[in-house]
C-alpha cells in the first residue's frame, strides 16, 4: 500500500500538463501519443486491457497504474513497470510472457517517459493495434474505376468493360487469353451456371442452329427468366446464411416449419428483388412489413442457424448459452453482409481488423431481443377472420368450462368441510418418488401386477411414468427379492419406443437390481412373472431411487395404484392399493374429493356440459389455424448492455449501446442509439446502415459472390472475409467497378449476371496451356475459363434429369433422404432406397445438421451448422463407390435404359447417340459408339447407363 503523499504526487504527475513537469536533463521530451501509446498498443494491451486484464492490470488508461503504484513519476529505478520489462542478467524479463522481449530502444523509451514525469494526457485511451486500420482497402469508398485502355487487345475484348480489366491484368503478367469456347460447351456452361441443370439435347441443337448475333444473349435472357434460376442461385445464398432445418447441438431436433424461408429466398431471387431490400428484410422483415408473411419471413434468417436448446439450470451456464446464441447471429450477419469476421472481437479487440470489442457488443445489443422459436405468421385479414370465427365459440367454451368448474368447486368445498374424516381415511404416508413399499398378508403368487391409476407429472418429462426398480419379496425370515431377472423373472408392459433406442426402454431393465436404468411406461400396467410360485408378502417400487441414473428427477412417477397377484394369469386378487395413502399434492387431493363428493345429479350435469363442450371444441378445432413458422420471437431486451470481459457474461465491463462499427473509413455512415431504443428500431437501424450507399462493404461482398459462382473463385478468394486475414483481390479495380454497377442497377443482380456472362473472359475455352499455367496455375487472371466439378446438388439433379425422373415441383415442405428418429435426441439414418417422392430438385431436400445423405454428402454438400461461402471439392474413393453401387444410381441406370428404349427404339447405335446427347450434349465418336454397343450387348443396356452415369465428363463443367 503506497502512502498518500506518493499517491498525490502520482496523480499530479499524471494529469498536469507536460509543460509544468521537469524533463530529464539533456533528453528530448517524450511524446506520449506518438511514441509511448503505440508501444503499449503493440506490446502490452493485448493482455493488459479492460477486456482481459491479466494480473488485474490494464494499460489502456492510467487508472491501474495509479491504483497499484506500478509507476513512480520521475523515478524509473523505483517503478515496477520498468522492472518487469528489463532482463535480469541472462534471464528473460517477466514481461511480456511470450513473444519477443522489448528492445533496448523500447525499454529506454519507457524509462525516459517515466523519468520525465510519466505524463498521460487526459482522455487518451489505448487500444490494441490491429494489423489493418481504417486505411484497409475493403473499408475505402468505392473507387471511380477508370477503364484500362487495352490498346493491344482484340476488338472483341474492348467492348465489355470486364474484358478490359481482365486483359490489363493478363498483359501485366504477359499472358494471353484462350480463344472462345465452342457453342456446345458454351450452352452447357451457361445453363449449368444459371439453373444448375444441363441443357436438353433439343435446346443444344436449337442453339447450334441459331446463327443470329443475338443467339447467345437471348440464351442468357431465357435462363435468367427460368424458375430454375432462383433454385440454383437460392442454393448459393442458403449456403452463405447457414440455412438448416434442425436445431443442431446435442439434441438436434428437426425443424419442420422453416421451409417457407427457403421458398422466400428462391422466389426473391427469381423476381430479382433488389438485394439491398433483400438484406433489409433478412434483418428486419417483421419490422418493415408486419403481418405481411411474404416479407416477414425474411427475418427467419436470424434464427436459421444452429440453436442450443438443451437448457441449463445453472444461471451462469444459461447466460453463457444465451451469449453463444447471440454470437452465432452476429457472426452470420457480419460475414454474410459485410464480409467481416466481427465475431473475433467477442473477447477482445480484433487482432487483425479495425473492429473493437465495443463494436461487437454494439451488435450484441442490437440482436439481444432475438429468441429462437416459432410463432403464427399471417396477414391482418387472416387474423381478423379467425378471431371473428372463434369469438362466439370461445365465449361458449369459457361459459361451459366455468359451469363445469363450479360443479367441481362446490364438490371440493363439501369435501374440505369433512377434513377430519378424510384425514382419517387417508392415514398412510403418500406415495414416494424415491421408494414406495406395500406389505400384505402372505399369499401364493406366480404373477404380480402393478395397475397404475394415476401419475404425478414432472413438467419436463414426456408422457408415461418411470419405474427404475420393482421388487417382489418372499415371506418368512430369509426374505428374497424374486423379481430379479437373474432369478428367472420376466417383466411385461407397454413401453415408450424411440426407433433404434428400443434397448434403452426394455421392461427387463426394471428388475435387474441395477436401478440406474429406468423403464418408461406407455401403458397402465406392469406384470412380473416369477420363475416359480412363491409365498410373498411385500412389494417395493420406485421411480427415482437415490443413487439412480443421471436423469434423476426427469420421469413422471406413480401416484395412485393397485397391486394384484395371480397363480395362473386368469384369476387376479388385489392385495394392496394406494387408496388409503395421503395425496401426493393438492391436485391429487382434489381429484380424490371429486370422486367421493360428486352427487349423481352433479355427474349428470357435468356429463351434459361435457357433451356441449365437446361440440364447441370440435367446432373450434375446425377453424383453420394460422400458419406457424420458425421465424423466432422477440422480447424488449432493454439495456443497459455491457461488454463482457474476456467474453464472459459474468464479467461485465463498460456499458455499450447499439451502434455501427467504428472502424470504417471517415466517409462511411455511422449511428448510435440509446440503450432503451426499441428492439425493432435497433435492427432496422442496423439494416439501413448496412445498405447505406456510403457503406462500401456490402456492394463489394455481393459483387464478389456473383463473380465467384461464375468463375469458381472470387476476385477475393475468401468471400466471407475481406479483412486482413482474407485474400487479396486479384482485380481490385474490377471489383469496385462491379460493385458500382450493382448499385447503379438498383441492387438488381440479373444485370450483373448478363454483364459477366456476355464477357469474352467468361466465353473463352477452358483449354489447358502449360506455358500459361506456369505463370498462373489457378487461372486467377483468367487466361482460360476455370473448369469445375458440379456441386453435390447438381450431380444428383443431372442424374434425375437425364433419367427422365426429375420432379420440378417447386416449394413446400422438403423431402428427406434419411429416416428421422427422435426421443430426447435426434438420429438421422440415411435411406438406402430413394422412392419417387425424393425425385425433386436437391434444393428442396430437408437439410438437417449433422445428417448424412450419401451421394450429396460424398460430393461435399456442406454441413449447415456454419456458413459455407465456398464449396469444398474433394476427390475420394467413397465418391466412386457411392456413384457405382448406391441403389439410387442403380435405379436411375434402369430408368435411363428405359428412356433410351422408348426414345431411340431397339437400334443400339441410336440408343448410344441419344444417351450421349442426354448425358454430355454431344454426339459419340465412332470409337465410343463401338465400345458402348459392345458393352450393352454383353452386359445389357442398364449396365451401359450405369457406366455413363459414372463418367467424369458427366460431372465436370468446362
UniProtKB/TrEMBL annotation:
SUPFAM superfamilies named in the record: Cytochrome c (SSF46626), Galactose-binding domain-like (SSF49785)
Domain Cytochrome c intervals: 23-118
InterPro entries cross-referenced by the UniProt entry: Cyt_c-like_dom, Cyt_c-like_dom_sf, Cyt_c_Planctomycete-type, DUF1549, DUF1553, FA58C, Galactose-bd-like_sf
UniProt key word Repeat: no
Amino acid composition bias (Basic and acidic residues), ranges on this chain: 375-392
Keyword annotations from UniProtKB, A to Z: Heme, Iron, Metal-binding, Signal
Signal peptide residue numbers: 1-23
GO MF entries: electron transfer activity; heme binding; metal ion binding
Pfam families with a match to the protein in the record: F5_F8_type_C (PF00754), PSCyt1 (PF07635), PSCyt2 (PF07583), PSD1 (PF07587)
Region Disordered, residue ranges: 375-402
Name the UniProt record assigns to this protein: DUF1553 domain-containing protein
Species this protein is from: Blastopirellula sediminis
Amino acid at each position: 500500500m503506497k502512502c498518500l503523499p506518493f499517491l498525490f504526487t502520482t496523480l499530479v504527475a499524471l494529469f498536469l500538463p507536460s509543460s509544468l513537469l521537469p524533463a530529464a536533463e539533456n533528453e528530448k521530451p517524450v511524446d506520449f501519443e506518438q511514441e509511448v501509446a503505440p508501444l503499449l498498443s503493440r506490446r502490452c494491451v493485448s493482455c493488459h486491457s479492460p477486456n482481459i486484464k491479466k494480473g488485474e492490470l490494464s494499460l489502456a488508461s492510467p487508472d491501474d497504474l495509479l491504483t497499484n503504484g506500478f509507476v513512480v513519476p520521475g523515478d524509473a529505478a523505483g517503478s515496477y513497470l520498468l522492472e518487469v520489462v528489463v532482463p535480469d542478467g541472462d534471464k528473460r524479463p517477466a514481461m511480456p510472457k511470450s513473444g519477443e522481449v522489448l528492445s533496448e530502444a523500447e525499454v529506454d523509451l519507457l524509462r525516459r517517459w517515466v523519468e520525465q514525469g510519466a505524463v498521460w494526457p487526459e482522455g487518451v485511451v489505448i487500444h490494441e493495434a490491429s494489423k489493418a486500420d481504417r486505411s484497409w482497402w475493403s473499408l475505402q469508398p468505392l473507387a471511380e474505376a477508370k477503364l484500362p485502355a487495352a490498346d493491344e487487345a482484340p476488338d472483341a475484348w474492348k467492348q465489355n468493360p470486364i474484358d478490359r480489366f481482365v486483359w490489363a491484368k493478363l498483359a501485366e503478367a504477359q499472358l494471353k487469353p484462350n480463344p472462345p469456347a465452342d457453342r456446345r460447351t458454351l450452352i452447357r456452361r451457361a445453363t449449368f451456371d444459371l439453373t444448375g441443370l444441363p441443357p436438353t439435347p433439343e435446346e443444344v441443337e436449337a442453339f447450334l442452329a441459331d446463327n443470329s448475333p443475338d443467339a447467345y444473349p437471348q440464351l442468357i435472357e431465357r435462363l435468367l427468366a427460368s424458375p430454375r434460376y432462383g433454385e440454383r442461385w437460392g442454393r448459393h445464398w442458403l449456403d452463405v446464411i447457414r440455412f438448416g432445418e434442425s436445431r443442431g447441438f446435442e439434441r438436434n431436433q428437426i425443424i419442420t416449419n422453416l421451409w417457407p424461408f427457403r421458398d422466400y429466398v428462391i422466389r426473391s431471387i427469381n423476381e430479382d428483388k433488389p438485394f439491398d431490400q433483400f438484406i433489409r428484410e433478412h434483418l428486419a422483415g417483421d419490422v418493415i412489413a408486419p403481418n405481411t408473411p411474404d416479407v416477414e419471413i425474411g427475418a427467419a434468417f436470424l434464427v436459421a442457424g444452429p440453436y442450443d436448446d438443451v437448457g441449463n439450470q445453472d444461471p451462469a451456464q444459461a447466460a453463457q448459452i444465451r451469449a453463444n446464441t447471440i454470437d452465432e447471429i452476429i457472426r452470420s450477419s457480419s460475414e454474410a453482409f459485410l464480409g467481416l469476421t466481427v465475431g473475433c472481437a467477442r473477447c477482445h479487440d480484433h487482432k487483425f481488423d479495425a473492429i473493437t470489442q465495443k463494436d461487437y457488443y454494439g451488435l450484441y445489443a442490437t440482436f439481444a431481443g432475438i429468441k429462437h422459436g416459432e410463432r403464427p405468421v399471417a396477414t391482418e385479414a387472416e387474423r381478423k377472420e379467425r378471431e371473428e370465427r372463434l369469438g362466439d365459440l370461445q365465449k361458449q367454451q369459457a361459459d361451459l368450462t366455468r359451469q363445469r368448474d363450479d360443479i367441481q368447486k362446490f364438490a371440493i368445498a363439501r369435501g374440505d368441510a369433512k377434513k377430519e374424516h378424510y384425514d382419517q381415511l387417508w392415514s398412510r404416508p403418500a406415495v414416494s418418488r424415491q421408494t414406495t413399499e406395500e406389505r400384505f398378508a402372505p399369499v401364493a403368487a406366480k404373477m404380480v401386477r402393478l395397475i397404475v391409476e394415476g401419475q404425478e407429472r414432472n413438467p419436463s418429462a414426456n408422457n408415461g411414468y418411470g419405474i427404475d426398480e420393482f421388487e417382489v419379496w418372499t415371506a418368512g425370515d430369509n426374505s428374497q427379492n424374486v423379481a430379479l431377472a437373474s432369478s428367472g423373472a420376466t417383466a411385461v408392459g407397454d413401453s415408450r419406443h424411440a426407433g433404434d433406442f428400443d434397448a434403452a426402454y426394455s421392461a427387463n431393465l426394471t428388475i435387474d437390481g441395477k436401478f440406474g436404468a429406468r423403464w418408461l411406461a406407455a401403458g397402465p400396467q406392469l406384470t412380473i412373472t416369477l420363475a416359480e410360485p412363491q409365498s410373498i408378502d411385500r412389494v417395493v417400487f420406485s421411480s427415482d431411487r437415490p443413487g439412480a441414473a443421471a436423469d434423476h428427477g426427469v420421469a413422471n412417477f406413480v401416484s395412485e395404484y393397485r397391486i394384484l397377484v395371480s397363480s395362473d394369469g386368469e384369476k387376479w386378487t388385489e392385495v394392496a392399493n394406494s387408496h388409503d395413502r395421503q395425496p401426493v399434492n393438492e391436485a391429487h387431493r382434489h381429484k380424490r374429493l371429486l370422486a367421493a363428493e360428486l352427487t349423481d345429479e352433479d355427474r349428470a350435469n357435468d356429463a351434459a356440459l361435457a357433451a356441449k363442450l365437446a361440440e364447441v371444441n370440435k367446432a373450434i378445432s375446425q377453424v383453420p389455424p394460422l400458419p406457424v413458422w420458425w421465424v423466432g420471437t422477440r422480447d424488449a431486451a432493454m439495456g443497459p448492455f455491457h461488454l463482457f470481459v474476456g467474453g464472459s457474461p459474468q464479467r461485465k465491463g463498460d456499458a455499450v449501446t447499439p451502434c455501427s462499427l467504428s472502424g470504417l473509413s471517415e466517409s462511411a455512415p455511422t449511428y448510435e442509439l440509446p440503450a432503451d431504443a426499441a428492439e425493432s428500431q435497433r435492427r432496422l437501424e442496423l439494416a439501413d446502415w448496412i445498405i447505406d450507399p456510403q457503406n462500401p462493404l456490402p456492394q463489394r461482398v455481393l459483387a464478389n459472390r456473383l463473380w465467384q459462382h461464375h468463375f469458381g473463385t472470387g476476385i477475393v478468394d475468401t468471400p466471407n472475409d475481406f479483412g486482413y486475414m482474407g485474400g487479396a483481390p486479384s482485380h481490385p479495380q474490377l471489383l469496385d467497378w462491379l460493385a458500382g454497377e450493382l448499385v447503379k442497377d438498383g441492387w438488381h443482380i440479373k444485370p450483373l449476371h448478363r454483364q459477366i456472362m456476355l464477357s469474352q473472359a467468361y466465353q473463352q475455352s477452358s483449354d489447358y496451356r502449360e506455358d500459361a499455367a506456369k505463370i498462373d496455375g489457378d487461372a486467377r487472371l483468367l487466361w482460360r475459363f476455370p473448369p469445375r466439378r458440379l456441386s453435390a446438388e447438381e450431380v444428383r439433379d443431372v442424374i434425375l434429369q437425364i433419367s427422365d425422373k426429375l420432379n420440378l415441383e417447386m416449394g413446400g415442405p422438403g423431402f428427406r433422404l434419411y429416416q428421422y428418429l427422435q426421443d430426447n435426441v435426434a438420429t438421422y439414418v440415411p435411406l438406402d432406397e430413394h422412392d419417387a417422392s425424393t425425385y425433386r430438385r436437391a434444393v428442396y431436400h430437408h437439410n438437417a445438421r449433422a445428417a448424412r445423405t450419401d451421394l450429396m454428402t460424398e460430393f461435399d454438400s456442406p454441413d449447415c451448422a456454419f456458413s459455407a461461402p465456398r464449396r469444398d471439392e474433394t476427390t475420394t474413393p467413397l465418391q466412386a463407390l457411392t456413384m457405382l453401387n448406391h441403389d439410387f444410381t442403380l435405379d436411375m441406370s434402369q430408368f435411363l435404359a428405359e428412356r433410351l428404349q422408348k426414345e431411340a427404339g431397339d437400334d443400339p447405335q441410336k440408343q448410344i447417340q441419344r444417351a450421349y446427347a442426354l448425358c454430355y450434349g454431344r454426339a459419340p465418336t465412332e470409337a465410343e459408339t463401338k465400345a458402348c454397343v459392345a458393352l450393352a450387348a454383353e452386359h445389357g443396356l442398364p449396365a451401359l447407363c450405369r457406366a455413363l452415369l459414372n463418367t467424369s465428363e458427366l460431372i465436370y463443367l468446362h
